[in-house]
Design a protein that fits this description.
Elements (H helix, E strand, L loop, with lengths): L12 E7 L5 E7 H5 L4 E5 L6 H12 L1 H5 L4 E6 L3 H11 L5 E3 L4 H6 L2 E2 L3 E2 L2 E5 L5 E6 L9 H11 L1
Parallel strand pairs: 3-4, 4-5
Antiparallel strand pairs: 1-2, 1-5, 3-8, 6-7, 8-9
């Protein structure tokens, strides 16, 4: 399935690894439709935890978190890595946003972000509080990445 602007983002529930205020990573249930009621959601799809380009990309978002969070959008990482991998990655890299477990590949499949049927592709889906797609983008080549400043421009234009 390839999402288009105006389509509804398919709902899903997953586990999310998130570093808490106490410095420990917790794993919680995360449902898109419930979270979207609170604020728009930017799903950031990336191929893998601890890989060079993905680590650089997500750490750039961490380092520029203040400028990204001013848009009042929930930024959520999604990859086909396991919950355990996400827990280690979120803790080691001190990520301020949740990482969703899509080891089943269900989220990637539903959103059209599955690379060769194997891993998460690199891209974005921005859904509004009504779950309508406001922006969707898939990198042409998975070793390209959008910098935090580019994500800020996307959010500025679409939120």
């Amino acid at each position: 399935m390839k999402l288009q602007i105006g389509d509804k983002v398919p709902d899903f529930t997953s586990t999310a690894a998130l570093k808490g205020a106490d410095g420990r990573v917790q794993t919680v249930s995360w449902t898109l439709s419930q979270e979207a009621k609170k604020a728009p959601v930017l799903l950031v799809f990336y191929p893998g935890d601890f890989t060079a380009v993905c680590t650089k990309q997500l750490c750039d978002y961490r380092d520029n978190w203040e400028s990204l969070s001013r848009f009042k959008v929930q930024i959520v990482g999604v990859s086909t890595d396991s919950k355990e991998s996400h827990e280690r990655f979120a803790l080691e890299k001190n990520l301020p946003f949740p990482l969703l477990d899509d080891s089943s590949k269900d989220i990637c499949r539903k959103t059209g972000m599955l690379l060769f049927g194997i891993k998460s592709d690199r891209g974005f889906v921005l859904g509004g509080t009504d779950m309508a797609v406001k922006y969707v983008y898939k990198e042409t080549l998975p070793f390209f990445r959008r910098k935090a400043s580019e994500v800020a421009d996307i959010l500025k234009a679409h939120v």
